[in-house]
């Protein structure tokens, strides 16, 4: 697998993890991994990246509101 292919697959997996948690609020990383056929470590990395996105959006919103 080339680096570009790996990056594209990783991006697709991140979007799949995002979509899973949007529709399955409260599920665990393990449940997500099993449902998507991904490893727990991969899902954990994606969840960490998604949380970073959300926290940066929240910080931006605070600066705009305040």
TrEMBL record:
InterPro entries found in the cross-reference section: WH-like_DNA-bd_sf (IPR036388)
Domain of life: Bacteria
UniProt protein name: Bacterial regulatory protein, arsR family
Natural source organism: Chelatococcus sambhunathii
């Amino acid at each position: 697998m080339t680096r570009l292919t790996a990056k594209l697959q990783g991006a697709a997996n991140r979007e799949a993890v995002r979509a899973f948690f949007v529709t399955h609020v409260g599920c665990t990383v393990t449940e997500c991994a099993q449902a998507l056929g991904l490893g727990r470590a991969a899902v954990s990395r994606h969840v960490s990246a998604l949380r970073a996105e959300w926290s940066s959006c929240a910080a931006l919103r605070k600066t705009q509101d305040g």
